[in-house]
Structure formats: C-alpha cells, structure tokens
Amino acid sequence: MPENTAVDYDGETYANVESTADFAAAPDAFQRLWTPYRIAYIQGAQQPGEKACPFCVAPTLSDEQALIVTRGEHAYVLLNLFPYNSGHLLVCPYRHVATYDEATLDEVTEIATLTQMAMRVVTETSGAHGYNIGMNQGRVAGAGIADHLHQHIVPRWATDANFFPIIAQTKALPRLLGDVRDEIAKAWLSSR
Description:
Distance between the termini: 51 Å
Structural class: alpha+beta
CATH topology of the largest domain: HIT family, subunit A
CATH class of the largest domain: Alpha Beta
CATH superfamily of the largest domain: HIT-like
Helix content: 25-40%
Number of domains: 2
Order of helices and strands: EEHHHEEEHEEHH
Oligomer: single chain
Number of helices: 6
Largest sheet: 5 strands, antiparallel
CATH architecture of the largest domain: 2-Layer Sandwich
Strand content: 15-25%
Mean pLDDT: 79
C-alpha cells in the first residue's frame, strides 16, 4: 500500500494510513496491513452485558437453535456463530466464569476432554489438516465475550483462504452452520 493512502471501510474513510518506511526500524520481510476498524473490538464495544451473555443463554435453547453439538456435565460444545472457518467450535463451561484460573478442576477437565473429542470428530467429518486452539482471556487479550470463559477450536486446511477477512472483509465458509452442526452432532454421538 502506498504511503498516506486513504482507506474506505464500511462507509468510513481512514485517511493517511501510515507506511512504516518513514519510521526508525530495522527492515524485515513482513508486509503490514493496517486494520484500524478493529479498534472497536479492542475497546470493548462488542461486549454484551451479563444478562445478554450468549454462553449463558445458549444452554437454555434447543441444540439446533443454539448450534450446540454436545452437552457435558460441566461444559458444552457449540459452533461459533461468527466462525473463522467451517467447523469452528467453542467449548464453554455452563457456569458464568471469566478466566481459566477461576474454573474448577471438573470444568477444566471436561473442557480438555471435549476439546480432544472435538478435534477427533471434526477431523472425521471434515478432514481438517490442523487446528488453532486457544482462549483469549479478558478484553485486552481480544476476547469477543470476555466475561464467560470459552475455548476456540478452529479447524485448518492446507488450502484455506484465511486472507479474505483482511483483504475483502469477507469470510469464505463453504458450508451452512446448521448443516455443520448436524454433521458434527451426529458424528459425536457415534464416536462415544
């Protein structure tokens, strides 16, 4: 991107996007794409109030409506409503707890066990080549829902197009959420 280029996003113009060429630094092999529109996530504008916590509401709904693929005793697994890739799952404790260190041993054990099973089931249903697994703890760490602990399980393939969200503000998801939920839930039951 040339120096001081104006960038349009969602009807807003971000003028004078900076190039690093004018700053003191040792050059490296990386290109940088500045995404100032993401500051809304960093500043917490996307955080729901406690009464609107989607991870507390989900277990009160039907599995199909909440995109839940399985329920355990202390935690459950559901599809991410805004997935990075098809089959992007979340493992959540039922209890409204913010961070991993506040979870009980039973919750931690079940989150780990459900994560292992999720990897097996998604590999079986979609042939994933690898996974990104992680938890963002707190708003400053980028947690979309900071007040309710959840672990991401993102399947990856050698050919996935992960540049789309940055370049075109678009996610290429080849399968519908309901279809993916049904397939994973069915495979989960047969894997027990």
